[in-house]
Amino acid sequence: MLMTRSHLSDATLRKLPAGTKIPAYDRGRIAPGIVHLGVGAFHRAHQAAYVDECLAAGETDWGITGVSLRSPDTRDALSPQDGLYTLAIRSSGEEELRVIGSIQSMLVAPENPSAVLAALTDPRTRIVTLTITEKAYLRAAGGGLDTAHPDIIHDLANPQMPKTAHGFLTEALARRLAAGTAPFTVLCCDNLPANGATLHRLLTEFAALRDARSVTAGDTGITDHIANGVAFPSSMVDRIVPATTDADRARIASELGVDDAWPVMTEPFRQWVVEDNFSAGRPDWEKFGVTMVGDVGPFEDMKLRLLNGAHSGIAYLGLLSGHATVDRAFADPAIREFVDGLWEEAIPTLPADAGLDTSAYTAELAERFSNTALAHRTAQIANDGSQKLPQRIIAGAIERIQAGFRPECLTLVIAAWIAACEARGKTLPDNHFTDPLDTALAALGERRTLERVAAVFDLAGFAKGSPERQTLIELVAAHRVHIRQGGAALALSALGILPAIPGKT
């Protein structure tokens, strides 16, 4: 007779094997203080883990209410487990299991937007954090709000029943203002440049459109409040979090003796740099390794250009070379040498007076990329390239051209992205990874290389308005020719000493 194994929950916590770390606090005494939008694996490996440590230290008013803006999958997995899940911290030689208890409840916005708004307007909510991915900020090619997006149009017409983060935040702040409740701090944790300022600008733009449609047109209403009365600190987050597999679930269940529907895999390294600008208080995160600073910018640029930029290059070149995971791609001598070249191009674009130790940082990255236990899929990193490349690759490439150099490695990443998109359904499986521009890219049809690259730049808004745009297009087109002629191997072998661009100093 088959035995039915119980699942992870408050009731089974004390039955877990010795050595498993469990919440060191009474979960029944925790009050909600944070609403998090976008409860994916990264949040559960990063911000929720930091908050878990704060709760264990006695800061009991910072429990998390998790909100999924789209899918019920995370709620359906965690609710039967009382919000508990296992964080598996894996290195090449060992694994540490830790049960996280900081998520108190889960809401699914499409099912019950009123409940989400109630959580956001609860006076106990003092911080709203976001990990909704770059594409969910609904930016147009020029960087402003995509006012033609159907969900933006819906939210402007139906402020009481929003779909987007913009709609939920604006309506909640409007309700709090009307009730005389202090605004919450909005803390963006996504990989956007100057993410706090970027979200502040987008939300102010959305609020202005909303006010313009209201019956009180002419009254600045919520726009002025968001523009001048709400804190939007920037932050930089870093932790590698590969997708959880069924094999991971089976292994965790075997080790714990209980089922966990959605454990999270991660690496030992973690980093969180936060601008210390909170209007309604915050946890003492600095006690647990968070770096609170006045300016996140230098840390953000280093991470975007050295970690995320290298990750994108490894992903697209790895896919074109048949490497399914980061560690396997990074073990490829040609790709390993390419990453060093990318870092050589990117490091000079970082501020020299910010005290950044790029040598130590890249050495640590090399160790992290080599972690064989994570099995971080190149296809996972490849998603949404059109949204990620501007801040990871293109900004640095423009600066290198302005300094008089040819950013060969940086522009190869863009060419590899284009080639990887084109390879789906051919040498790569259909939908192996996705991009918001997939439909538009497919509609381009066959074109000559230079013309096609220019069309892709137009669609994605790459380097829009930059005098360096044409140089970037020509460099990318040259790489694309190599890839089409001999794959990633030829493109990589064509890289050599990077000469200065004639006429530049």
From TrEMBL:
Keyword annotations from UniProtKB, A to Z: NAD, Oxidoreductase
EC number(s) given by UniProt: 1.1.1.-
GO MF term (any one): oxidoreductase activity
Every Mannitol dehydrogenase N-terminal domain range: 33-287
Domain Mannitol dehydrogenase C-terminal: 295-477
One Pfam family matching this protein: Mannitol_dh
Keyword Signal set for record: no
Keyword Mitochondrion assigned: no
PANTHER family: MANNITOL DEHYDROGENASE 2-RELATED, MANNITOL DEHYDROGENASE DSF1-RELATED
Name of the molecule in the record: Mannitol dehydrogenase family protein
